[in-house]
């Protein structure tokens, strides 16, 4: 595990350079992508690098971590909409190579199909992650088993509360989501976890310095042999 502490701006640039380097070496990479406010700066940088001709996503395949149940791809808070608006529409990726679990009609078979397509695509070259304030990764809430795969989950109250800022009221925040599991995430060749802001300083301490425990899903990432954690100064402020 490497912990890299910088300003947000510099973290975004350093992570963007990881992708530029990877895609130069391996244009047909498989990328695991994340949503939330954390990766927005990184996605802007990737768009800049694409526009400057430094990188192409033409042969890249992507898999997103999760999606809200009940939201269509046209819903402005769906993760498919987020990915299209904040990244895919601005780069040369073939939308057919982008995978976001569907929030409509998700059932056991849809979960199995998503997990199978992940496995068939081969190991993800980089899995990008953000962190929930309760330590969740993807939508794997506290106490998610280590061997979990793609499935439908009930969102923790804390998660719905944290994400209500994107909706007009808490009642509109979906109660369930479809998410890749911890074991789906751990199969990646490399994991990059990005965490910004003072509100996550305490959970970052548990993720980085605590014993790996399912009570804090992010702490399980310590068990991965190629994990880079990018923090801003505020998120790192409790590391001592
Ligand atoms: C959501 C997503 C996670 C994300 C987390 C943190 O619930 N499912 O993938 O990492 O929230 O979001 P943010 O980056 O907005 O703090």
Structure overview:
By secondary structure, this protein is α/β, with parallel strands linked by helices. It has seven helices and ten strands. The protein has helices at residues 8-25, 40-51, 79-86, 108-120, 157-163, 182-186, 201-209, and strands at 2-6, 30-33, 61-64, 66-68, 98-99, 126-129, 151-154, 176-179, 191-195, 227-232. The strands form two sheets. Strands 1-10-9-6-2-3-5 form a seven-stranded parallel β-sheet, with helices on one face. A three-stranded antiparallel β-sheet has the order 4-8-7. β9, α7 and β10 form a beta-alpha-beta unit. The longest helix is centred in the first third of the chain and has 18 residues, at 8-25. The radius of gyration is 17 Å and the shape is globular. The chain starts with a strand and ends in an 8-residue tail after the last strand. The mean pLDDT is 97. The structure holds 2-amino-2-deoxy-6-O-phosphono-alpha-D-glucopyranose. 2-amino-2-deoxy-6-O-phosphono-alpha-D-glucopyranose binds next to α5.
β-strand number: 10
Largest sheet, spatial ordering of strands: 1-10-9-6-2-3-5
What's the overall geometry? Answer: globular
Mean pLDDT: 97
H/E topology pattern: EHEHEEHEHEEHEHEHE
What small molecules accompany the polymer chains?
Answer: 2-amino-2-deoxy-6-O-phosphono-alpha-D-glucopyranose
Outline the biggest β-sheet.
Answer: 7 strands, parallel
Please give the radius of gyration in angstroms.
Answer: 17 Å
Broad structural category: alpha/beta
Number of helices: 7
């Amino acid at each position: 595990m490497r912990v890299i502490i910088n300003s947000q701006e510099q973290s975004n640039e350093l992570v963007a350079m990881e992708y530029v380097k990877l895609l130069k070496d391996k244009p047909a990479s498989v990328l695991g992508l994340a949503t939330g406010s954390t990766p927005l700066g990184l996605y802007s940088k990737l768009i800049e690098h694409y526009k400057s001709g430094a990188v192409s996503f033409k042969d890249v395949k992507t898999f997103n971590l999760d999606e809200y149940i009940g939201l269509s791809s046209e819903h402005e808070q769906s993760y498919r909409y987020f990915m299209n608006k904040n990244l895919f529409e601005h780069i040369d990726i073939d939308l057919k190579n982008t995978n976001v679990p569907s929030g409509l009609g998700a059932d056991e078979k849809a979960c199995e199909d998503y997990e199978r397509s992940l496995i068939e695509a081969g190991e993800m070259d980089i899995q990008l992650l953000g962190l929930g304030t309760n330590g969740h990764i993807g939508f794997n809430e506290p106490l998610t088993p280590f061997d979990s795969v793609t499935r439908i989950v009930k969102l923790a109250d804390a998660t719905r509360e944290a994400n209500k800022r994107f909706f007009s009221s808490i009642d509109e925040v979906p109660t369930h989501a479809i998410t890749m599991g911890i074991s789906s995430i751990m199969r990646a060749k490399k994991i990059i976890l990005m965490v910004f802001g003072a509100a996550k300083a305490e959970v970052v301490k548990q993720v980085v310095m605590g014993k790996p425990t399912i009570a804090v899903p992010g702490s399980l990432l310590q068990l991965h042999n190629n994990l880079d954690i990018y923090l801003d100064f505020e998120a790192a402020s409790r590391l001592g």
